Amino acid sequence: MTPRHNNPSPRNTFHQDLPLNPTPRSQSIVESIYSQSQDSESSDSTAASSIDDAHIRLLRSGVYVPTVTFFHEDTEDLDLGTIAKHAVRLAQAGVAGLTTQGSNGEAVHLTHQERKLVTKATRNALDSAGYQTLPIIVGCGSQSTRETIELCREAMTSGGDYALVLPPSYYKAMYKPESLVEFFEEVADASPIPILIYNYPGAVAGIDIDSDVITKLAKHPNIVGCKLTCGNTGKLGRIASAVDAVTPSEDGSGFMCMGGSADFTLQTLVVGGSGIIGGLGNIAPRACVRIIELYKAGKMDEAKKLQAIVARGDWAAISGGIVGTKSALETYYGYGGFARKPLPRPNQQEAVIYASGFKELVELEKSLS
After folding, report:
1. Is residue 227 among the annotated active site residues?
2. pLDDT tens digit string along 63-109?
3. CA 153, CA 95: separation in Å to the nearest integer?
4. Label partner for 192 (CA 20 to 30 A): which of 169, 222, 349, 362?
5. pTM of the full predicted structure?
6. How confident is the model at residue 55 (pLDDT cuts 50, 70, 90)?
7. Sign of CA dihedral 259, 265, 267, 273
């Protein structure tokens, strides 16, 4: 278990032999690595990374992108080459880290083995492109404490640095008031990697973890952050203040208090949050990063104007879900494909509608390239 320390190391003081501003290698290198069959099983002990296991990839204030999982159109098998190239594209845009196995990653459509392959492909792609210090957070939510711990262990052996954990919800009516606290504490006790609490009521039968519970859980040495997709910036502000969260200008306690959507990036920062874990970063990572840069530079008027454009684009992502996001990636970047069934494949008219929702944002994104 890797505990969170109250006084974290200053940013970029670890792995000093590695480049802080790496120059990515050619895409052909990434493609050659991921031409392998997804049926092949490489040893978990060699999958993690080229960095010594004793070191930690620190989480820092910024934008974290829950990556899309790509599939071959004809078979729905994992498209590991595109997964790898997409990870490198996001790293090149300046994001602080990536998240695999989230809602955008269709984790609920993947087997355990496929989850491991996606994280391995992402870690290996980042390492090969010179981004060895970029952390990966892995979605590890499940309905039982036992399987959640198993997913945390698999995340670590596949190259993940942190686990993002939803509360279980299937037997919600039978839980006692203390059940969720016990769940997170037991997972944190057993997980070989630090965990972040994921509060997303829409995905877990309306369970909405309050600020008192998250603040209590934050005292656990292996619980290092939270992601609030509930959109409650008041709750976010209370937690950030109580735990002395990381901000763009201060390391604080090391605890990461993250907004869960790009449409309230600036609001998250204003109330003392650490940044966002937002799916819109798959479409426009530079625009999302730029908001944080402007805020840190004290350019609030510019940040607000940019936030408005990002919020309009994020509404397209929220409305269209992963189907719309993949369709827009296909339209504007030439890759994306389709989600796994039973999610529908958009027809031509629907694809045009999805593209129009992102048009303003993509124009902004390309202007920042």
Report:
1. yes
2. 999 999 999 999 999 999 999 999 999 999 999 999 999 889 999 99
3. 25
4. 169
5. 0.87
6. low
7. positive
First to last CA, the chain: 39
319, two tokens: 């409305």
Extract the tokens encoding 368. Answer: 């920042």
Separation CA 195–CA 142 (nearest Å): 14
The catalytic residue among 85, 116, 120, 227 is 227
Contacts of 318 (CB under 8 A, 6+ apart): 261, 263
pLDDT of residue 88: 98
Locate 111 and state its tokens.
């087997």
- C-alpha closest to that of 70 among 34, 40, 39: 34
